[in-house]
Design brief:
561 residues; alpha/beta; Rossmann fold; 2 domains; 9-stranded mixed β-sheet; 10% strand; binds 2-acetamido-2-deoxy-beta-D-glucopyranose; serine-type exopeptidase activity; glycoprotein; hydrolase
């Protein structure tokens, strides 16, 4: 049977249940990134239409899920084992070639695995072809069907004990040690073959961390848009959105968003009836039942497409929003550089914000709600930014609430883009609300344990050898990667595309990496994005120069059988 990968991805996107999309690499933004990688038109998702499938389907019939038995606790075999899924394609393999592993990260991996192992437009297929490599896609523990325990809102908090960075990092090395593939008699393990790990975002972090912690398993790595520094306060996320908007000529829009939110915040702070009125003005009846935090989290939905599409992204994109906000409804004249607020007032801007026609679809898409009953076959339901019921989102929420942080609160100050109710405390509240039993039993830390995480991983000062770092100029996640340039980041680091010698770590003041101009999150993994090819090219050249220095374990340690 021919497998339509895109149709499956579209289905997954359209059927997302409630998600904490305001938060980080949560389901919506994550899925949008995959959609961008696959060239899916985001308008189809917003309107919950099925994506038209191409007649000419890639042959991913041979890319079927396999499983490997892994210890739930790498430190204690008595806890038992679970089955972890992976996919392999050896279609491009040439004798002597390396093995590439793509960890899909915090999502169900099936559709992505098939796309990236089977579709010639994928960056991974490009690499497999170039290097005559075997390709493996890996599903991260606690996602998809790779479940030590079932994940739902009812999962006892004890069951999340093995969802830690440390446990998850040990999975691929354990698997690799014993890797075999039907039809291949030669030794394919890292003892005999260079294994190369590639990925973007959390998956890019995993590439770099695995190379760092398990250099005998992973010979080289490509880390795209990888925020390897754990940090609770990630308000810089919105500074980057601001920078990206200004660069695209939307500084008027940033000013009006700020002014509109000041008006909204004032209304929310006045009294109950003023607060209810502004909530209803945006999202209709039922919206008034939401707290100020949950309501203003929904307002941040205008930025939801930014990391995956910049100011593009079709009808739901930030550019469309700004065009609407900065155009006079009657005369169709643009606002000019200062925006509308200075002469029409904050109230005018807030009301224009509220009347953006796409907003209701966007919010219903984000939260699986039915605000304003846009779907007349279902009852009105308008609970904004609810607790998640989607298993992948629950697992990722556990991960950032315990280890990574990444709380994207308002960037208070002159460039502020969110409501004053979008605080770090609000973000912590959503963690506590998601895992009430864990709070009761003391299993959820009162704040993410980022110091411990960075101590364990090394954070953004790690410099494992044979690793290439790629980033986007306006990627909000670059702020916590080694390519960060903010005040809070290590200062005086030179980013260079000069290939370091094989196996040689650079000093902390130097990084083998590249920032793509005018790019956002993981744009180098979108083969249709021209400058991405330049970035991938640095890695291709580097890997070509490093591969000859790979030494099979047998060559050093004597004969293996
Ligand atoms: C492969 O990906 C491209 C875009 O990335 C898409 O247009 C095409 O339909 C895909 N093919 C399959 C079989 O999914
Ligand atoms: C998870 O749930 C499925 C069906 O809902 C069940 O068959 C399976 O045994 C459960 N697994 C665990 C580890 O509890
Ligand atoms: C490695 O593979 C062999 C053969 O398939 C199997 O018997 C053994 O249990 C595996 N070891 C581990 C640690 O998975
Ligand atoms: C969060 O970090 C920014 C710097 O990026 C800083 O300006 C701000 O004061 C911090 N917020 C809190 C609440 O600490
Ligand atoms: C709430 O505030 C508005 C605006 O200041 C005011 O007009 C209204 O009377 C207030 N309502 C109540 C119930 O206090
Ligand atoms: C302001 O907004 C409009 C959108 O209507 C845009 O075309 C224009 O370039 C923006 N910037 C300035 C400086 O006017």
């Amino acid at each position: 049977m021919r497998y339509s990968v895109l149709a499956q991805v579209a289905l997954a996107l359209a059927g997302l249940s409630s998600t904490a999309s305001a938060m980080g690499m949560g389901a919506i933004r994550r899925e949008l990134r995959l959609a961008a990688e696959m060239g899916i038109n985001p308008d189809h998702m917003l309107k919950r239409q099925s994506v038209p499938t191409q007649a000419n389907q890639a042959d991913s019939d041979n890319v079927v899920a396999k499983t490997v038995s892994l210890p739930i606790d790498h430190g204690d075999p008595s806890v038992g084992t679970y089955e972890n899924r992976y996919w392999v394609n050896d279609e491009w393999y040439q004798q002597g070639g390396p093995v590439f592993v793509y960890d899909v990260g915090e999502a169900t991996a099936e559709a992505t695995a098939k796309q990236h192992l089977g579709n010639s437009t994928s960056f991974l297929v490009e690499m497999l072809e170039d290097f005559g490599a075997i390709g493996i896609a890996w599903e991260h523990r606690y996602y998809g069907e790779s479940l030590p325990f079932n994940v739902s809102v009812d999962t006892p908090p004890e069951h999340f004990k093995y969802l830690t960075n440390k446990q998850a990092l040990a999975d691929i090395p354990f698997f690799a040690k014993n890797f075999t593939l039907d039809g291949h008699k030669e030794d394919l393990t890292p003892d005999a073959k260079p294994w190369v790990m590639v990925g973007g975002s959390y998956s890019g972090m995993r590439s770099a961390f695995t190379r760092d912690a398990y250099p005998d398993t992973i010979f080289a790595a490509y880390a795209s848009s990888a925020p390897v520094e754990a940090r609770v306060n990630m308000s810089m996320y919105f500074d980057q959105v601001y920078n990206g908007m200004v660069a695209k000529g939307y500084s008027n829009c940033t000013k009006d968003i700020k002014a509109g939110l000041e008006y909204i915040d004032d209304e929310l702070s006045k009294n109950a009836s003023a607060a209810a009125a502004i909530k209803k003005r945006f999202f209709g009846d039922g919206a008034e039942k939401n707290s100020n935090g949950d309501f203003t989290a929904a307002l941040a939905g205008i930025f939801g497409f930014f990391q995956a599409y910049g100011v593009g992204g079709g009808d739901g994109g930030l550019g469309s929003f700004c065009e609407y906000l900065e155009t006079d409804a009657a005369t169709l004249q643009p606002a000019g550089p200062r925006g509308f607020a200075p002469y029409r007032g904050k109230k005018y801007v807030a009301e224009r914000f509220a009347s953006w026609p796409v907003f209701i679809d966007l919010v219903n898409f984000n939260y699986d709600t039915n605000c304003r009953q846009t779907d007349t076959t279902k009852p009105l339901e308008c609970t904004l930014n609810p607790k998640s019921t989607d298993p992948d989102t629950i697992s990722w929420t556990w991960q950032f609430c315990t280890e990574w942080g990444y709380y994207q609160s308002n960037n208070f100050g002159p460039h502020s883009l969110l409501s004053k109710f979008q605080t770090l405390e609000y973000q912590q509240y959503t963690c506590n609300r998601q895992f009430p039993d864990a709070v009761k039993k003391g299993l959820l830390p009162s704040t993410p344990q980022v110091e411990a995480t960075n101590k364990q991983t090394g954070g953004w000062t790690i410099r494992p050898s044979n690793v290439y770092w790629s980033g986007g100029q306006f990627d909000p996640w670059r702020t916590l990667s080694p390519l960060a340039t903010e005040d809070i980041a290590p200062q005086g680091v030179t980013f260079s595309t000069e290939i370091p010698k094989c196996g040689v770590e650079t000093g902390e003041d130097r990084l083998f990496g590249y920032i793509m101009e005018n790019a956002e999150h993981c744009f180098d993994l979108i083969t249709g994005f021209g400058p991405g090819k330049i970035s991938r090219g640095f890695f291709h050249e580097a890997l070509k120069s490093w591969l000859p220095c790979f030494k099979a374990a047998g060559a050093v340690a004597g004969h293996r059988d």
